[in-house]
């Protein structure tokens, strides 16, 4: 009989193996959907982690920025020889007198609040930069996934055409054996197959490069395997992806614009703080004085700086005004560029969407009909092999254009989502 200890050990081993199998299965599925890749990037990408830590560090600067400086304590031992009556000593009870001084610096009214508000605005800017880094990374992942999907579909289509050419070769061989076609038809079918196999080799190399890039974006080792792309996301309607519908969302949510807005608020508060430097800061102290073993005197001290260096302060004020104007100009530049990029990508999305609809609804059925007609005509000797090859190439190009239009729409959609500040 197995002991209880051995049973527990066996149970732990089985649970570990089950968990390892589940993790391995999840790893194998990674790459089949863009959502899984985005989730993995959230958890693994070191750049995203770095930006989050930067944002956390900036948030921790808010409290110190508005805090009072640490108080100061001073001790003075006076007349340590008691007017020459004794040897020098450092005992407070044996010197002539001991002065204790406790001091605290106090900035002018409002300075602490302004420093805290500057730090808050900078922390907010850091959070928006982290968000901007994420939406930019998410857009790259979506784009690379779409490109990988295009290669996968292109490879499938190439294999389908390769099978079709093998069938056409058999038809050509039968017709050649019956003296109904030239041997050149068989050779041309074989050449087409060799060309397709060469294209498959190139597609495989390009796919490995894209997988390596996608792994790097996610935060995985570049040589790790990825599952084949399952499907791309459903495309929204043209009404949903219009410049009029997206302009307001871009102005409100774009991380770069939000970052610039936070920088403007920080510059405004820094300007106010600079003008506050026209007024003095204070240092307040209280001082008990000890004679022998008891405290017999108390002193109160107030100290302040005198803001006499007016030329220096005016220069600092002009610097603050210039920095605020620069921040506002940067926001205008960013806003104009973002809206221009949004308009261009919306126009490209609309073009790809219409091209996809035209190819799917019109060109592809016509190409399929042309191929079937050419194949039937070649079998009956009504058309030559060159016409059949042209029909095959036409349907392949049409299907490629269909895939290309769908992928182009996906890439433009990913860019639009990044511009309007959408994370998914």
UniProtKB/TrEMBL annotation:
UniProt keywords (A-Z) are:
Coiled coil, Signal
Which InterPro entries does the record cross-reference, listed alphabetically?
Answer: MdtP/NodT-like, OMP_efflux
Q: Which Gene3D superfamilies match?
A: Outer membrane efflux proteins (OEP)
Ranges in coiled-coil conformation:
111-174
- Tell me the superkingdom of the source: Bacteria
Signal sequence span is: 1-25
GO MF terms listed in the record are: efflux transmembrane transporter activity
According to its UniProt record, which protein family does this protein belong to?
A: Belongs to the outer membrane factor (OMF) (TC 1.B.17) family.
The protein's name: Outer membrane efflux protein
What organism is the protein native to?
Answer: Acidovorax ebreus (strain TPSY) (Diaphorobacter sp. (strain TPSY))
């Amino acid at each position: 009989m197995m002991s209880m200890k051995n049973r527990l050990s066996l149970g732990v081993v089985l649970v570990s193996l089950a968990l390892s199998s589940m993790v391995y299965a999840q790893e194998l599925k990674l790459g089949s959907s863009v959502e899984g890749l985005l989730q993995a990037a959230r958890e693994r990408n070191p750049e995203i982690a770095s930006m989050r830590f930067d944002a956390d560090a900036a948030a921790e600067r808010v409290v110190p920025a508005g805090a009072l400086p640490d108080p100061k304590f001073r001790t003075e031992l006076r007349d340590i020889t008691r007017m020459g009556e004794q040897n020098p000593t450092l005992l407070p009870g044996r010197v002539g007198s001991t002065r204790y001084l406790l001091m605290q610096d106090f900035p002018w009214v409002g300075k602490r609040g302004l420093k805290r508000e500057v730090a808050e605005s900078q922390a907010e800017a850091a959070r928006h930069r982290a968000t901007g880094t994420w939406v930019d990374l998410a857009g790259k992942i979506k784009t690379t996934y779409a490109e990988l999907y295009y290669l996968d579909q292109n490879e499938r289509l190439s294999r389908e055409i390769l099978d079709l050419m093998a069938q056409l070769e058999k038809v050509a061989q039968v017709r050649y054996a019956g003296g109904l076609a030239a041997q050149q038809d068989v050779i041309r079918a074989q050449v087409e197959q060799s060309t397709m196999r060469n294209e498959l080799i190139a597609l495989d190399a390009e796919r490995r490069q894209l997988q390596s890039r996608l792994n790097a974006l996610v935060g995985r080792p570049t040589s790790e395997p990825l599952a084949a792309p399952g499907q791309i996301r459903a495309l929204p309607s043209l009404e949903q992806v219009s410049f009029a519908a997206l302009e307001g969302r871009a102005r409100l949510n774009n991380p770069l614009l939000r970052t610039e807005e936070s920088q403007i608020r920080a510059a405004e508060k820094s300007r106010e703080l600079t003008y506050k430097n026209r007024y003095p800061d204070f240092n307040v102290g209280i001082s008990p004085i000890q004679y022998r073993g008891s405290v017999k005197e108390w002193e109160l001290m107030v100290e302040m700086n005198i803001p006499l260096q007016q030329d220096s302060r005016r220069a600092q004020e002009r610097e603050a005004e210039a920095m605020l104007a620069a921040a506002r100009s940067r926001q205008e530049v960013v806003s104009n560029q973002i809206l221009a990029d949004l308009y261009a990508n919306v126009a490209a999305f609309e073009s790809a969407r219409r091209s996809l609809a035209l190819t799917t609804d019109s060109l592809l059925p016509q190409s399929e009909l042309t191929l079937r007609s050419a194949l039937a005509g070649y079998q009956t000797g009504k058309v030559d092999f060159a016409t059949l090859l042209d029909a095959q190439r036409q349907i392949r190009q049409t299907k490629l254009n269909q895939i290309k239009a769908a992928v182009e729409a996906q890439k433009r959609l990913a860019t639009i989502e990044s511009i309007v500040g959408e994370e998914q």
